[in-house]
What we know:
This protein is α/β, with parallel strands linked by helices. Helices cover 46% and strands 18% of the residues. The protein has one domain (2-178): Rossmann fold, CATH 3.40.50. Helix 1 crosses helix 6 (158-178) and helix 4 crosses helix 5. The protein is globular and about 50 Å long.
Amino acid sequence: MLIGPGGAGKGTVAAALTARVPDLWLSRSWTTRPRRPGEDPNAYVWVTPEEFRRRVAEGGFFEWAEYLGNLYGTPVPDPPPGSDVLLEIDLQGAEQVVAKRPDAVVILLLPPSFDVQRARLVSRGDPDEHVRRRLEKGREEVVHGHELARYEVVNADLEQAVEELAGIVCATRRKDVDAP
Ligand code: 5GP
């Protein structure tokens, strides 16, 4: 699982990591958040709150959470055989997954500085108020993220961050193979 405050670059890093590491399958979340102008139409499955709630009632989510007024959920994963699953989710979701799967690996992705974090959020075109709320929420995510995460990676340079994460995936796979 990749967690971290808004502006850490989780989405970009997750996409680059799955493109680089074989047999790593990125789950596509459902969300009720409106799509941002220019946002990749495949970034999420965009649904209404009613559709989301229906899936919750049907037990169709592995985890779900409310984040700043919108709902986000991971459908029960259905990866190709032999693939590992990568989730890019918020802290509350990660806590639910760890409770279900204590062997899950949590990685905290961090922005290199507050200024870079803010600049990344502003560049998405969100209103100032959204940026402010995400920065505030992000502080909380970092404090609790430190407690939950097994690894921490600073995303100053995309290539380097992806390299580090690929190393973590490799090391985790080796440990799983070596485990008695
Ligand atoms: P954003 O609106 O910036 O795309 O996402 C807001 C937050 O929701 C981010 O921290 C993102 O990682 C998280 N998120 C995205 N998908 C899911 C999901 O399926 N479950 C949970 N719990 N959080 C998610």
